[in-house]
Write a sequence for this structure.
């Protein structure tokens, strides 16, 4: 794994002159953030040695290097999900690459169902913590100390300093946001109403099918982490209507403008 990651890193080092300090993983329908990136260099996942490829609608499958207000960034337009059939090492492969590429800060975003009944579709939620309901962990297997420790601490997974930065920025910009706990499941089914009731009793405010594996690896490798969920629908049982991924992507795109403005301004201060 280490050699493969370094092969990918070498390729990127040769391909682009950028050396970003911030990476952004864009969730379903949130790809428009790349419109805020100037002097872009785009690379398709297909071209990158050892990189998986995206198979989900709303996930383009490109690394986008460039600048937001002078700050060099790397945006991942399209992520990998466990339900696509990738194993956890493949799902989290880009995070290993980002870290070895020298990136110290990661912003993870997602489209998620609202489990907190005070939320509504379009709410932006700053992730304060998460619950791993995948039933597995991307760090299972032999540990490579070059990446991180065998037993990573997760007592401050979502970096307090970055949360404060995002909150101050939101207040300055008049952006409305909430805070809460993201629960990640394998999908690809949306939840049953009974599962949603169980997840609420566990402390979930938002439910999705991503983010947790990436964050586990980012924390393990020692990155600073900021997470934002875009609530695209209320979770099953709270919502009256059935879910569809098309509706998820549409709401994410509609809310995307606020999300993009918020992330872009926050990035400038990192
Ligand atoms: O988490 P992201 O990739 O934003 O997408 C969310 O939306 C999709 C379901 O509609 C799932 O992939 C879920 O995880
Ligand atoms: N698991 C899950 N993922 C989502 N992604 C967007 N909405 C939802 C949802 O309600 N549940």
């Amino acid at each position: 794994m280490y050699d493969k990651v370094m092969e990918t890193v070498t390729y990127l080092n040769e391909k682009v002159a950028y050396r970003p300090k911030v990476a952004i993983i864009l969730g379903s329908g949130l790809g428009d953030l790349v419109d805020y990136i100037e002097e872009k260099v785009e690379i398709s996942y297909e071209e990158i040695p050892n990189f998986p490829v995206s198979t989900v609608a709303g996930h383009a499958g490109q690394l986008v290097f460039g600048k937001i207000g002078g700050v060099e960034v790397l945006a991942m337009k399209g992520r990998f999900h466990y339900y696509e059939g990738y194993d956890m090492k493949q799902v989290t492969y880009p995070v290993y690459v980002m870290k070895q590429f020298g990136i110290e800060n990661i912003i993870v975003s997602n489209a998620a169902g609202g489990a907190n009944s005070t939320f509504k579709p379009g709410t932006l939620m700053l992730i304060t913590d998460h619950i791993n309901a995948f039933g597995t962990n991307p760090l299972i297997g032999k540990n490579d100390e070059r990446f991180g420790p065998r037993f990573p601490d997760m007592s401050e997974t979502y970096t307090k300093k970055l949360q404060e930065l995002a909150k101050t920025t939101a207040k300055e910009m008049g952006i409305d946001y909430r805070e809460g706990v993201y629960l990640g499941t394998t999908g690809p089914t949306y939840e049953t109403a009974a599962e949603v009731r169980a997840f609420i009793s566990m402390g979930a405010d938002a439910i999705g099918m991503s983010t947790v594996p990436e964050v586990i690896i980012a924390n393990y490798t020692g990155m600073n982490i900021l997470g934002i969920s875009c609530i695209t629908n209320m979770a099953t049982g709270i919502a009256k209507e059935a879910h569809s991924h098309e509706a998820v992507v549409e709401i994410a795109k509609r809310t995307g403008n606020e999300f993009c403005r918020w992330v872009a301004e926050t990035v400038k201060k990192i």
In short: The mean pLDDT is 95. The chain has seven helices and nine strands.
